[in-house]
Hints:
Elements: E1 14-16, E2 19-21, E3 25-27, H1 36-48, E4 56-63, H2 64-68, H3 72-77, E5 88-92, H4 96-108, E6 114-119, H5 124-127, H6 139-153, E7 160-169, E8 172-173, H7 175-184, E9 189-196, H8 207-216, E10 222-225, H9 231-241, E11 245-248, H10 258-266, H11 277-295, H12 298-306, H13 309-313, H14 320-326, H15 332-340, H16 380-387
Parallel strand pairs: 3-4, 3-11, 4-5, 5-6, 6-7, 7-9, 9-10, 10-11
Antiparallel strand pairs: 1-2, 7-8
Helix pairs in contact: 1-10, 1-11, 4-6, 6-7, 9-10, 11-12, 11-15
Bound molecules: flavin mononucleotide.
Residues 28-33, 60-61, 90, 118, 120, 163, 193, 225-228, 248-251, 358-359 line the site of flavin mononucleotide (FMN).
Amino acid sequence: xxxxxxxxxxxxxxxxxxxxxxxxxxxxxxxxxxxxxxxxxxxxxxxxxxxxxxxxxxxxxxxxxxxxxxxxxxxxxxxxxxxxxxxxxxxxxxxxxxxxxxxxxxxxxxxxxxxxxxxxxxxxxxxxxxxxxxxxxxxxxxxxxxxxxxxxxxxxxxxxxxxxxxxxxxxxxxxxxxxxxxxxxxxxxxxxxxxxxxxxxxxxxxxxxxxxxxxxxxxxxxxxxxxxxxxxxxxxxxxxxxxxxxxxxxxxxxxxxxxxxxxxxxxxxxxxxxxxxxxxxxxxxxxxxxxxxxxxxxxxxxxxxxxxxxxxxxxxxxxxxxxxxxxxxxxxxxxxxxxxxxxxxxxxxxxxxxxxxxxxxxxxxxxxxxxxxxxxxxxxxxxxxxxxxxxxxxxx
Length: 396
Ligand SMILES: Cc1cc2nc3c(=O)[nH]c(=O)nc-3n(C[C@H](O)[C@H](O)[C@H](O)COP(=O)(O)O)c2cc1C
């Protein structure tokens, strides 16, 4: 009897300059989450699923200024595991000179294989000074930052990609212009979080915008981002938008095995991971151990795992008391004792564990510098204010 034919992959591998990403899946950069420890966990699941294909796991954002100044926390955040390949780092930048210096540091010291630029941050203290999601409105500033990064990275064959939102709000749409500018400036791919800055994480991502970006940016991959909670969502986004790959953020919080599902889904396999509570407990424990290793400090690692507890337990039968105790855990021994109290045989709960997880937030008026929206050109006064925008973001 002949073996069944292997299912055909849904998409071609992603090509970012010299990099080939077999499975067209990117772990979204998430501040406070996608450190070396979490990336390792996601990577282990991603390469175990489907065909053992690789995907791209991006670091949380670091600020270019802090990197150039070799801030201690920042230098820790750009670390990668010895086996991590490709090594991906996201930079937050507000001016071309600091961007160039930060990229130069990463490439000349061989600290990254891929650099992503963040133009989507909605945090008021960032947008108030014209940074993050507010920045692409100033087209020439945006273009010059991307061009500076590409210029420094190109001789080292390190691809630079851009991650952005649709615009500041529905009346100030930026993504099509920004996509064209990034493409012309030499970006290797563009990713769109299909929301406006004023939506924060609320409402529903508008995947039709990803389709429009795909029609506009023709020579480099276009990646879709926003509200992918399952492999089925990812496949639907690709089918609806024609995008070349997906970027997955909140969907993998407390669910790193989503990367196995995504690898399976894109390899054409229907296989999905549906862990028991015992298996979830083991994953949570492994995540905590990786965090302790990352911080080189058990107390810090245990403090960090606390914020993941509710995500891991979503939908499972676990009482409020044990959830509360887990969210206060101080040591790995305490964690072990609490995990042992969970009903290890409880099966994957299905629907209650699916769907949205992580922050949603509320729509809000975007804090911007005075007169920011009056023109897409940067005034001298605004240029000075933007230069301060990096000071307002912590080392992470
Ligand atoms: C906790 C958290 C931290 C985030 N940090 C970053 C970041 O550092 N850089 C960035 O470009 N986007 C950041 N984002 C946005 C995500 O990368 C992603 O674009 C967004 O969550 C939408 O995708 P999703 O619906 O799959 O979560 C963050 C999102 C969350 C929830």
